[in-house]
Description:
The protein has 255 residues and is mainly alpha-helical. 45% of the residues lie in helices and 7% in strands. It has three domains: 19-94, Rossmann fold; 104-176, Helicase, Ruva Protein, domain 3 (Orthogonal Bundle), CATH 1.10.8; 180-252, Arc Repressor Mutant, subunit A (Orthogonal Bundle). The radius of gyration is 26 Å and the shape is extended.
Amino acid sequence: MFGYKPGAFTGAHIKGMRGKILQSDGGTLFLDEIGDMPLNLQTRMLRVLAEREILPLGSETPVKVDLNVICATLRNLEDLVQKGQFREDLYFRLNGITILLPPLREREDKQVLIRNVLDFVSGGRTVTINAEAIDALVNYSWPGNIRELHNVLRYAQAINENGTITVDDLPLGKPKEASLPIEQRAAANDNAVIAETGTNGAIHNAERAIMLEVLGKHRWNISKAADELCISRPTLYKKMKQHTIIPPHRFHRKK
């Protein structure tokens, strides 16, 4: 990022290195995932923006730079500022123009986007997609956003045999149900649960059954099970306690 002078440290390149910032002098520097930048680097980046100069490692003389900076992040920088994990002065230096991009699940043009991505990944092949598959893709939660959509459609067009993608070609399982939190999934399945305690009891039993199924599927890996159930690890532990679900001893688990 900041570069170094020749001989700045053991193993340094004999000619030194300019670094990304100096390479962007006169142009634009793009910083992806700026919310994950360590605080010590934030301090150095602030100097670049405030003083328009950089001090490469091993140098005693600052170097002037003139560049524009564009940043991207999936994290809420305002929350990070409140938690002391992101410098407030750097945040306001960077926050000139903010463009919020909604996640794929919240976009209103999903059908158009799905067809455009399909045209892109098909590489010129004539591939169509039927209405049922479109509905499945539209109703899916897309935790991986556009990258996941690319992979799903690339897979589907690779395995379909007649040039038309159907819901059976999509590696989504049951998209609409899988994208719901466990409480809603349990409520959706309560008609399939026999219980004498009424609706609440049916939902309670359905929730417990879903948790046991998912935990067993992932061999009681709490992190993976929580991800599939769309809840946090602490919430899953809390629900396991509520439903009296006790993990089996690791020697008794199925291999």
